[in-house]
Amino acid sequence: MDVTIFGTGYVGLVTGVCLAEVGNNVLCIDIDPHKIDLLNSGGVPIYEPGLDEMIQSNRTAGRLRFSTDAKAGVEHGLFQFIAVGTPPDEDGSADLQYVLAVARAIAEHMTEYRILVNKSTVPVGTADRVADTVREVQARLGRTVEFDVVSNPEFLKEGAAIEDFMRPDRIIVGTDNPRTAELLRALYAPFNRSHDRLMLMDVRSAELTKYAANAMLATKISFMNELSNIAEAVGADIEKVRVGIGSDPRIGYQFIYPGCGYGGSCFPKDVRALERTARGLGYEAELLRAVEAVNFRQKTVLFRKLNDYFGGELGGKTIAIWGLSFKPNTDDMREASSRVLMEALWEAGARVRAYDPVAMDEARRIYGERPDLILVNDALSALDGADALVVVTEWSQFRSPNFNAIRSRLRIPVIFDGRNILDGSLARAAGLTYVSIGRAPLKPA
Ligand code: UDX
């Protein structure tokens, strides 16, 4: 089938390449000529495991092309995926200008039936706004070409996006038109083989499902982070509590890891946007507001622990940081806890020596050259001349470090583990003080 994808960001690229992989003829459109040039010369603007190889093989096979020509895009695909950004505007609501600009472009160039598929995370009611926009343009141009607008939210995890697309838990299709539903069912058939994962619903329920999923996951994390602070106050160990409650299948073990807060492009933005949507309709979403507030505070927990440890004297100290991305297997630093920590440290007059397996270029792009940020090429080098080590992102490679090497390189033998991934008893045996989340610090015997 012929498919057009508007937007070659994270969601658009993954959607495009996975649809090409199963044999569709995919044309990806973006207004950014640099991005399209990069993709046409074999580059990939983002890091995602497996993406690069899949883009190259599908390009070579001729099933995946990139262009800035919106008209050609509209002519190409029966399916017109809208996968452009919906950045938060000043009050946290999703900014729909890019989505509606694509809707206008499609309306202008459309000469036969098209299905507009909303892949971007958009507030409930956006499909109707997209349809209204298309109708307005058509009225202005004096045309009536048939079209449908479908909500088909993505549930891709960064770092596992290809896998999530190729083997989805669910495929949500929101449309009131049975014919459109059948066309989407056919498009998704290769990803829906062993049992039926395609859930058909009305447009607004599909739109809300996306927000509901992310808000629920964010709530689980903030709940655990809140409990971790209570655990510290009452002298309990949050890790024992985590295992204790996770064993109840109604609660489950997933997404109940306490830490230094959630980041990324989805949870912070979506929780805020859902809260704003509700408020705009006269409903105060108390729980969502609390989820956000708890997360905001939790992102400062590492700074507070460091500040307490050093008795408020962080000026002139050098702090080693392991992990800059908001989570492992991505270079994405959007809303990352590392940023809150580094910025607070700089404010307090401290220097940072940081290492991340893939996000170093991203850190350079965000912060540029500055004397209080030294990016080093391996984890142990971050410790040279550092007064303390802080683990901020749960990369696998940080899980079993050589504690003796850490001990001998650090000026002050102390580790702050923002994700509870290290074995504190081994750290302690090597002569290190081990400070983690939701439990008492361990001091060398
Ligand atoms: C999320 C959803 O998982 C995905 O389904 C949706 O489509 C987009 O948003 P993503 O933002 O890529 O995906 O990251 P995810 O793996 O969910 O992690 C989000 C954040 O929560 C990370 O900062 C992670 O470190 C943190 N986290 C996760 C915790 O602090 N504790 C946990 O138990 C799990």
Automatic annotation (TrEMBL):
Q: In which pathway does it act?
A: Nucleotide-sugar biosynthesis; UDP-alpha-D-glucuronate biosynthesis; UDP-alpha-D-glucuronate from UDP-alpha-D-glucose: step 1/1
Provide the binding site for substrate: 155-158, 210, 255-259, 263, 327
- Residues annotated as catalytic: 266 (nucleophile)
Provide the function of this protein.
Answer: Catalyzes the conversion of UDP-glucose into UDP-glucuronate, one of the precursors of teichuronic acid.
Ranked from the top, the taxonomy reads:
Bacteria, Pseudomonadati, Pseudomonadota, Gammaproteobacteria, Chromatiales
Q: Which residues bind NAD(+)?
A: 30, 35, 86, 121, 158, 269, 334
Q: Which ranges carry the UDP-glucose/GDP-mannose dehydrogenase C-terminal domain?
A: 320-424
Q: What is this protein called?
A: UDP-glucose 6-dehydrogenase
Q: Care to name a GO molecular-function term for this sequence?
A: NAD binding
What catalytic reaction does the record list? UDP-alpha-D-glucose + 2 NAD(+) + H2O = UDP-alpha-D-glucuronate + 2 NADH + 3 H(+)
Q: Give the family this protein belongs to, as stated in its UniProt record.
A: Belongs to the UDP-glucose/GDP-mannose dehydrogenase family.
